[in-house]
Write a sequence for this structure.
């Protein structure tokens, strides 16, 4: 596989050893997935400021992230990739500053963090995702296979530190280089050019920020029905994030987006709208349901609701919204955050012993 690498930032002194390991990690993925020698991928190291702009422009999230994947293919699921033809996968954008912080936070250093982010992002370009536990388990297994080839897998790290806890991230045998932070100034001409050039050459597909969660035991591949449902959830998620940006939140600054799906396949969205008289504030979930009602949708006709916000865990609806969900008899609720972590629950789980219109009879 051909790797077009560039270091387009000045904030972190990235050692040659780290770059070499990063490329080796990408080649490990290519070998495992039997990619053609003519397959190409572009990898760019940028600073937090540049990736912040890209994250906001393409994902509507106003903060820097660790890595972004921009696929030139729009395949919904992992596909067999190979053969003699040239195949341009897409772009991998990594924030060197965030990699330094996360390498320190997880205790394994900059070098290993760069390799992990590269492997993680390349798998996204191949169609893997972690929108649900099943997908996350499959993707995590593929990450470990590649990292094992460099002796940088989770098991290798734990073994080097004498640990048996699979959740523990110990210091890696590959030391990290000290990061050099420059003074925070206005965006330089070079940074603007980097951001503009990257935006010109990429086609957004997916993200991503990883939470380093090991897959649950017993997690396996998805059935065809599960895959179809997952595509539906992704569509709702995309709509909810887009509408979230229209949230009117002058007081809390906490934007929430929601989307509902009807039996006829229509999608209605909503965002939270705050008011100086706080009690008049309306949540995104209710706005989405009320928009559907205004279009003539009635109880029993909404099949799913998804709600997302920038929270550490998935976003849980308030009690008032749960009661409205019960009124509209929505059987499936998906709680998510902007990073794509999700939990699907039933109405009964969310609001047991709910009070509905049928109770008047």
């Amino acid at each position: 596989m051909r790797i077009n690498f560039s270091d387009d930032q000045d904030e972190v002194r990235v050692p040659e050893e780290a770059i070499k390991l990063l490329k080796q990690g990408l080649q490990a993925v290519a070998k495992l997935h039997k990619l053609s020698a003519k397959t190409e991928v572009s990898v760019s190291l940028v600073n937090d400021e540049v990736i912040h702009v890209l994250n906001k422009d393409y994902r509507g999230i106003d903060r820097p992230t660790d890595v972004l994947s921009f696929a030139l293919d729009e395949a919904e699921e992992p596909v067999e990739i190979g053969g003699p033809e040239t195949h341009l996968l897409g772009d991998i954008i990594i924030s060197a500053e965030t990699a330094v912080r996360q390498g320190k936070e997880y205790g394994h250093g900059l070098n290993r963090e760069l390799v992990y982010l590269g492997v993680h992002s390349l798998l996204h370009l191949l169609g893997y995702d972690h929108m649900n536990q099943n997908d996350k388990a499959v993707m995590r297994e593929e990450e470990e296979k590649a990292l094992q080839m460099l002796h940088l897998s989770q098991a290798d790290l734990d073994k080097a530190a004498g640990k048996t806890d699979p959740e523990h991230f110990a210091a890696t045998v590959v030391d990290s280089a000290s990061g050099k932070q420059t003074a925070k100034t206005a965006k330089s001409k070079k940074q603007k050019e980097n951001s503009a050039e990257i935006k010109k050459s990429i086609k957004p597909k997916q993200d991503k920020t990883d939470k380093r969660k090991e897959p649950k035991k017993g997690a396996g591949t998805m059935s065809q029905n599960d895959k179809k449902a997952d595509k539906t959830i992704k569509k709702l998620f995309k709509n909810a994030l887009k509408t979230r940006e229209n949230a009117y939140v002058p007081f809390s600054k906490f934007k929430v987006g929601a989307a509902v799906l009807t039996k006829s396949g229509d999608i209605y969205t909503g965002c939270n709208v705050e008011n100086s008289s706080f009690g008049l504030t309306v949540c995104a979930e209710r706005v989405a349901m009320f928009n559907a009602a205004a279009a003539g949708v009635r109880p029993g006709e909404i099949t799913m609701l998804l709600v997302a916000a920038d929270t550490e865990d998935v976003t849980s609806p308030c009690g008032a919204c749960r009661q409205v969900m019960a009124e509209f008899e929505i059987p499936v609720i998906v709680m998510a955050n902007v990073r794509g972590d999700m939990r699907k629950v039933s109405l009964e789980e969310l609001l047991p012993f709910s009070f509905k219109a049928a109770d008047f009879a």
In short: The beta strands are 2-7, 39-46, 67-71, 87-95, 206-207, 256-262, 267-271, 302-309, 332-337, 342-346. Residues 74-85, 163-188, 203-227 have pLDDT under 50 and may be disordered.
